[in-house]
Each structure stands twice: as C-alpha cells, then as structure tokens.
What does this fold into?
Amino acid sequence: MMINTIYLRRANKVIVNRGQGSNRISEAYLATAMKNIEYLGFTFSHHLMGTVRTLSKEQFEAFYSQLVADLRVMVGAHVEYKPMYPDFPVQVMEQSDAELYLNAVYHYLTLDLPEYKAAGRIPLMDNINLKVIDLGSKAEFHTMIRQLIEAKVSISATDKEDIDAAIECADVDELDGILPSEIPFKENAGFVVGSLLKHDKANMKLIGRYFKTATDVLRLAVAWSDGDVSLAEATRFRKFKRPERRLLLRLLEQCCPITEDMLRYKQRWIRLGEILHPSEYKNQFAGCKEAFDILRNNKPFTTFNGSVELAFQYHNVWTLIDLLMQRPGEFARRLDHLLRLTEHAEYVVLAFGEVASQVSTPVLLQVKKHFAHRHEPQDLRIFFPKGNIAKATAIPNTLPEIDAAACQDIVGICDQVLIQRFSTLPSLGKIYVDERLKSYNVPFSQRSASKALRTIVRGSRVPMQEGDTIRFFSWWKEGTVNGKHTGRVDIDLSAVMYDRNWQCVEHISYTNLRSSKYQAVHSGDIVTAPQGACEFIDLHIPSIVDHGVRYIVATLHSYTVQPYCDLPECFVGWMMRKKPGSGEIFEPATVENKIDVTADTQIAIPVILDLVERAVIWTDLSLTRHPNYYNNIEGNQKGMVLMGKAMAALQKPDLYDLFMLHAKARGELVDTADQADAIFSEGKGITPYDIEQIMAEYLV
It folds into this structure.
C-alpha cells in the first residue's frame, strides 16, 4: 500500500486492518518476523502486535514483505555495500602507504577493485535502541497530510510527493479529510490544486476558494507545467487545452484587481498569455484582457512596490510609514532598513505596533529573533535563497547599529501579539517545555529539505548518541536516467577537521585515507559505480578532540561533475558505533540518519559535527562547483569554511521559544513532564520531528 510507505517514513506508523477469519498466524511466526526487523533497528508496538496477530498467513506475508522493503530503503539497507577494503577500518590502518598507493593506482587504471578475502567479523556488540512502529489509521494519515497542506511555510519536494500520492490514492469522499478550507501558504495551494487537476479530482467549487491573487493563479499554471511553484526559477509552460485555459482565466478573473500583482512577474505572464489567448475571451474575462494589455504594451501603471522603493531612495520616512502600514507583512520585512534611515525610531516602532497583529506568525517570530540579537557582534549574515536547491549565502555583517531601545520595544510587541494570538486557541492545560528544544529551529522554510530517515530543520543541533566513533557512509550508482546514461560517476566522501577558530587541521578523503595523529580513516576511493559503490569514514571522537579539533564538516563531492539530481540514486548517512570493530561495516540498526542527495549541484554538506558539544548540526546544504577549482576538498576550502562558520553560529527562532509562547498563552507551565497534560520535548509528546503538526498547529 503506497500510503503505508509514506506513513511509515513520516510517522513510524502503518495501517493494518484486523483479520476476520480464524486462520491466524502463529506466535512463532510473528516472533520470527519481529526478530528479523530488529536487524534494521525496528520493532512493533503492543497495539500493532495485537492487530497483526489477527492476520492470516497470506495477509501477513503481504504486509510484512512491503514493510521490510520500506524499512530497508529508509535506513539504506536495500543496497549492497562493498568497500574497497572489506576489513575496514583495521585493514586501512594496518596497510603500508605503498600498498594503499598501488591499490589506488590499480583501481584508477583498471576500474577493478583489489581482491581481498574478508576476514570473519565478530557479531555487533553495540546495544541498539529499537524504533517502535505503531498502529495508525487512515483518518490519522489524512490528518497528517492535511497538516502538511495547512502549513504556513514552504514544504519540501518530498512533502509534495507525499501529498500527491495521498490525493491519488484517496476516494472522492475522502478528500474532505485531506483538503482544508483554506491553504494559507500559496505555493502549497498551487501545487495541491495542480495535483487535484492531474488526478481528475478538481472542480471550480472545490478549488476556487484557494485563489485570491494573480500570483496564486500563476503558481497553478507553473504546477500544471511541472515547474517551480516558488517562482524562483522560470518555467516553460506547457500547451493548455481550451478547457484548461478557460479555468485559468476564470480563476484569474475572480482575483480582481490583478494588474499590479501580474506586474511582479511581468515576463512570465506575457509568456503565459501567449498560451492562454485572453483576447479570445475578452467579453467573458474583461479584467484579464485589460491586465494583459497593460503588460504587453508597457502602459503606465503605478505599483505599491515602486512607490516604496522611491520613498526609500529619497529617505522619505513618513511616506514609508504611511505606505508600509497598508501592508503589515512588508512593513515587518523592511523594519530594520527603515530604522536605519531615521533618528526618530520611536515613531517607526509605534506605527509597527499598530499593525503588528496583521503580520503572520512566522514573520513575527523571525522579526523577534532578529531584533533580540541585533546588537550582538556577528561576523557573518547568512541567507537561504528562495528555490528548491539548499544553497546558502554568507556575507560580512556590516549592518550599522540601531537604537537599542527600539529593538527591545519591537521584541516586546512581537511577544505581546503572539501571546494574544495564541490565547484564542484551545487550552493546553498543564504544559511542560523541555529546555533542550532551544537547540532545534522552527520549521519556516522546508522547500529545499532533503528526504531523510528523520528530517529536522536546517541549523538545528541534535545530540550525538552514545558511542565514541561516528561512521559516515555514502552510496551511489551510475546508470540511465530519463533515457540518458550518466557515464562513469565518482562521488567522494570526505571529512574536514577544523579547530575552534575554523582553521583547517586535516582532512580525511580520497587524497588522505588515514590520519597519522588520531583515529580517522577512509575506506578507499572508488571511482565508478555500474552496480553501485560505497565509501565509509570512521572518526574516533576522543582522539580527534585531543588534537584540538572542534568541528568536522562532512561533504560529498561529485568528482565527475554530474549533478546529484541526474543520478539513479545517491545517499549519505552516519552511524554511531561503540565497538566499531564488531558487526558488519554497515549495520542498519546503528544508522542514526540517512539523507537522499538529489540536489542540482555537485557538492553537498549534509551535517557539521561539533565535537566539543557532541552535537550534529543539521545543514543539508549544497555548494555550487567553483569553475577554477577541482571538485574536491582542497578546491572548496574557502566555501566550506564560510558555510561552516555561518551554520555553527546561525541564530534562528527555536522551538523552545515558540512553545513557551504557547504555554504562556494557553495553559500553566509545570516543571516536569509527569505533571503535564501537554509535553514538548526531544523524544516525548510534540518533538522536533513532528514538523507537519508544528507547521500547521503552532505557527497559526
């Protein structure tokens, strides 16, 4: 069942209907199956065991075979791992430099791996904390999908795939459980309606409510053309059929006035107009015809943004205040710039306070965080450009100082508005908020988030589990994608060590398989993958810290320069190992996380390790290949240091602050989880991994 694949990955739940007959599976059958999935790091909950017991042998085998297949993909155990050195890590550590060198040359010349017979390995000696798979329901699954659709922020490509699959699988009478009355984030609206249309489950009554502006309609046309609904990149529109053209024009007509909004994306609307032929419907959609006429013929039209930019150009603060109060969200985004222009900050703050209640929760949280730390010294400012690729831009922080009292007042306004807003929501009773949630960021923009075993928000710091050795792994495959062969594909896994000042100490990569200072070792460079290939890196944390290393940046480089999106499959992950010499090199049950690498770039930075704080900083970033450098560690040092510094010092609104605002507004704060009706913590109640629920219910 497709929805079980999604449900399992997102919530560790599955839907199982109770068996009706008397021909049930035996206890031994169930026990054997559960013991087998322990190898993958999972087990069944009591409720799931109770339902599975009622299945016939045939029903159970169908359920179990799909479950195991899904679990294998989730942890990366669906492929074969054959590193260059089968007795890694000891084999690499003990071989001479000459043998390592000659083996590498042999592989580069022949593309064959050196032949070694693997020695026997002792069984895994690490204790495994099994992840529990629970029993879910179709109603709960639909609620989870609806929460995604209701998100007040952008969602990822994986989220969209899951929504599309849920819509495809849903019966018409089940759509009410999936579709909310309103879709607040318009990128999501365009995609969802596009999915409904694709699966012939849309009508004007159902979808018309989701379109308020011309840009909403443009996003639908983009989604219908399989383009980027964020509009960060231009889309080649497909040829729409006559009924489809009428639908788009009808939706556009109901959004009047539309001209100013269309001018924001003037060239795209002109191209779309060439396909829609609005003049053919000039009597039916007169507003559309008039707007397209202004765009095509460059007729004068005064816009809000044009007026704002002109006022900024002439430093006309009073005009800016009057204009921006008309659009509170824009006021919030321009607040810092406006405060830098005037010596009368109190008037700007007063004006913002009058309209702050009309600003969305995500924007208010970001404004609050920005001004709370506005006076702290920061070397860099980091931006995440809009789009589907997880790129980041870091620039020197040259912002001039602004009035400290104004900053404090703005923080107070944001707090007051948010608490008042949250107080209108249902009471939560007694509330416990774990202080460790300060390490987890609020999910504002998941647009470029990669599919992962456990997805969290970029910049969050996850505590390392027990164990002194972290083992990174990567796997990739070359082959045919969309009718075109990739050619030879060489993906290099690397780890770069930095001290606390971000000075490079050493790197472990294909050019340096092992360290002479501490226990850090690479499994060997493989440069072709017709059947799939893998690389591993072991890092012994205590020995590395003893030599002054604080940060380790894990990177994946496409040496043969194919972008990851053009590969059949590529992923990276890591395991925590207490006894790295025990068990197989790849032990699924020890996998902490696995990330699918699918970006349209050649360099990926999945995580940064902070060894002193024993934290994994979730970065999920991509770097663009520099044309003057080789695509390897040495060639991208500058870019990685910049990203490393920026991500390690990143300050974004955190979940602790968000949930504390809800606690103040909606209940009574208590000291322990045992006393609480509502729990917000790392592993119980609402957790940082409940992204769908946080986006839909706590960013209102």
